[in-house]
User: Fold these one by one.
Assistant:
Number 1:
Amino acid sequence: MTLIDEVKTRTDIVDVVASYVDLDTSSRNPKARCPFHTERTPSFYVFPETGTWRCFGACATGGDVLAFVMKQEGVEFREALHQLADKAGVKYSADTGSLGAGAEKEAAPKATVIEANEAAARWFSQMLLSSEGGAAREYLASRGIDTEMAERRGLGFAPGDGTLTLTGHLRSSQVTPEAARDARLVVQGDDKAWRDFFRGRITFQIRDRRGKVIGFGARSLDGSEPKYLNTPQTSVFDKSNVLYGIDWAADPMRQSHRAVVVEGYMDVITAQEHGFTDVVASMGTAVTPDQLKTLSQIVSGGDESGEVVLCLDSDSAGQDATLRALETAWEQFGSKLTGSTSARGRNLTVRVAMPAAGKDPDEAIKADSWAWRTSLDEASPLIEFIMQANVRRFDISTGEGKARVVQALSPLIFAVDNDYDRDIYWERLSTLLEVSTERLRSMAPRTVPRFGKGGSAASSGRFRKESISTDQLGAALTGTAANIEEHVLALVFQCPELREFVEAIPSDYFLDTVNRELFTRWVRVTTLDEMLETLSDDLTEQATRLQSLSIPPSDHARRVGEVTLCARRLRERYMRNLLKLTEITLKEEENTLEGEEREQLRNRTLDPSDHLKKVFQAGATGRV
């Protein structure tokens, strides 16, 4: 783990921001008057779930915790990193700004980290059955879980009063301090004392496919936030590629060629106890590409096709999570959205099920397990669900509402390879919106170029006659945020002649902290070597890697088209992200504001929407 990853893992952005501004933490996303300009009403918001902040006022800027400290303190990247590292108690080399050699040598082997987790799991189980675990047992009983089931499903309790601590237990056992630290079972406070990471919470063992405990989830009992807490990233645990319950579900999924993905720990436990043995959880977040890849490997093999059914909460928050998961599915499977083939060539269908009863799978199964089974069997095809969700999302009785639906869906329809299937989707959308297919096509912006068999772009404008390889752009245009950014940086690092086509890109378009810093520094200098001389180890490692990435041979015209297209994709993604954040703030706060304040908040949400419309228009004409 790099110093940057270590610092961000151990840093609470809410605590950092609150140390500088008067932060109102009464809402899910804390707010304040922006510290970077004068204003009468709060326009500065912190989003704890993503570890980011955003000003919707005059600044119109945002970023992660590092970006906040840099702007607040007026310091460079390295100084902000060092300040946060000191506060988090992270060791680093003062000369290079990276984790020191001594710290690297002290890292515990993965086997000992797992042993520490196994020891903690046993202690948590003992605490649940002790007098300390009375309240936890009462809560579990209210959810239909007795002590026998709790033991079978690996539930436990982490005391919170300080009398009995995991830290003390591990100290008296054979677990080394390094293993306890690297497993993130203990954390060091500002006073340098080591304390339990999980306190006053019910614990859930998170195991890998072999059944080894690699981390924990935990639910608060006293209503304290966050309600659910996971082990931070370790050498054996990365939330983005772990699925809760995979140790129970792997064999059943392989046999049934189906994986059902729910959102929470209790959803999985209830499903497993009621005989739905092919169920796993994404642990409260949208399904990631790595998780989908894992499921694809399990459910699809040989000539057998497989399917993934996304079954998340039926309430509004759950539907938002479902839509985020669908976006992830699109990123993973690209133009095979309709369920044909995964990136690895395995046959895979992705469908979406919404429980008919209850707000979440846990409640739906308990209310009527047969109805829940039916909802899985009758799950909607991916693109059909996206259509219905967007029709419900916007007011299609108005022209503006119809336009927003078309705006959201047209890139997905244009990306379908088969002309026959594409026509079917246009007809379906035409019926839903009561608009002719000809009119739909004239309204639809093409934000993603289509590629013919010969590899040439079918989009209009300057890319019409250029031949851009899908192999070159596939990962960048349909991959993760870092993939797009890294592709752009690799191109400009290796092809200096492309500078004039990208140096005007706002650095905010780079969401990854390291990539943003590299781009910012590259713009300031004339040559790459000049930039490399000023970098710390963490930044140098990334820059060197990007400089050595393999890029297929191409001529200058195609390179220009490639990097320009990526730049436009960065802008579109940035605007979409900004629109999502403004919609979140509007949804949370519109009902609590009155008069002028409500109107101001509404105006803030319109701005990124108008910008996004311009991005789509630029995409149709080939402009960045």
Number 2:
Amino acid sequence: MDPIYVTGHRNPDTDSIVAAIAYTALRNACGEREYEAACLGQVSDETQIVLKRFGFQAPKRIKDLYNQVRDLDFDKPPVLNTGVTVGRAWDEFQDYPAIAAVPVAREDGSLYGILSRTDIANYNMTRIASGILEEVPLFNVLSVLEGRILNDAGENTDTIAGEVIIALPQAQENLLFQKQESIVLCGHQPDMIRRALTMNVRCLVLCQTELDQEFREFPTETVIISTPLDAYRAAQLIFQSTPVGRICVTQGLVSFHLNDRVDDVKEMVLKYRHPSYPILDEEEKVVGILTRYHLLRPRKKRVVLVDHNEAAQSVPGLEEAELLEIIDHHRLADIQTSNPIYVRNEPVGSTNTIIAGMFQDRGLMPSANLAGMMAAAIISDTVMFKSPTCTQRDIRMAERLARIGNVSLALLGREIFSASVDNKTAQEVLFTDYKEFHIAGHDLGVAQITCIDSGAAMERKDELLEQMTKTRKENNLDLIMLMLTDVLLEGTQILYVGDDDIIQQAFGVTPRENTAFLAHVMSRKKQIIPMLSVLWG
């Protein structure tokens, strides 16, 4: 069954990553095993410390939730090799009556062509009209005729070709077969057999009869084959010994890959209007056939959002996915759904506080390692309980989880916020926990780094401002800010690129050289964004 992805926001923080893991564990513990934790961006150093500390791996990273070819219920008929006979290919069509075409592949599995029922019909009509069998492997002929070789000439021959003739008794010489390049079919007709062997025709097919003893040692270059089929049926089937590689369509092929977006595929289908399209995997191997019918109802990817409910912060392609649930502690934003969904949004400081409550609601206790990691996530998102978003419920839940996990919250907090930015580029620092907001016609980006020594990061002020200036221009932002939230100072040192008046009016401070210290400001969600929202109305 397709997975249900549980994912936090872009540029995920510790609360976002741990919430995805914890909620997945909760649902799987209840028997719903299709849930799978995912993330949308690079896992930060802080989060890596937490994951390693409690023995967890980072969730699977997904890029988008757009409908792809792999989400379609496309046909998966057998993939034929170029050397397969037309007869064998027709048998496959009989086994799959709903399939209009099958892919033809080379030995390595790569696409060679596509074969349809129409291709086989056109070939049969053309061959019957001409009566000429072009050179084919002898093994192919034996296969379609259910035949066996009766002489040494047959053992030494690999291919045959010629005009297919059913030999009948004739009173006039000019009505008999005359060419050496002939494939003669006959029954128990000694005169015809002798004539064919004397002329050294390419092949003699004995239909529902055995070869008389007098002809077994007859000196001839003719391949002699015996078949249990009657002459009429053998004459029809022998043309089906041709390899499908000769009759399939190989020019002007349009194929798609499993990762192609359905919207792009629809445009191509409308443009080319072929009845069928081969589907290839990442290694260019053929995996199926697509028709217009398959595009009518693609399977939507399913997703649960944790720690956010804003489209700009969510996974690209969310509008094409089926959103099942939202577990969050932020303001309600702009995500819309076509059907009612389960939403749990509570005014607490951490999404993991909510999920821990959901464990309690179901009478489940998280494992010691998971409980310890959830406690760490609460500490991270509430900045050691100093953030204005922190509630008594966060504190009580973190303490309970710490007891289950047998960890010290104080030691855990120092370990979490000790992550250094010294070994990161300015771009990595800025986008470790970066979000964009749209407020009353203003576009802004706000990044946040929580640490126990903001001074070390301030030594890289010029480098950081340069990167922020570049990002502001590329994203066409009115304002971009970097919050260096210092746990020990209980405040935030901000770097910004934008109008000085905005900073002064919003936060009541006098900025100097694109910096300002905001005492007791610890939360982007509850202090920075609300103040700017008030300013801009």
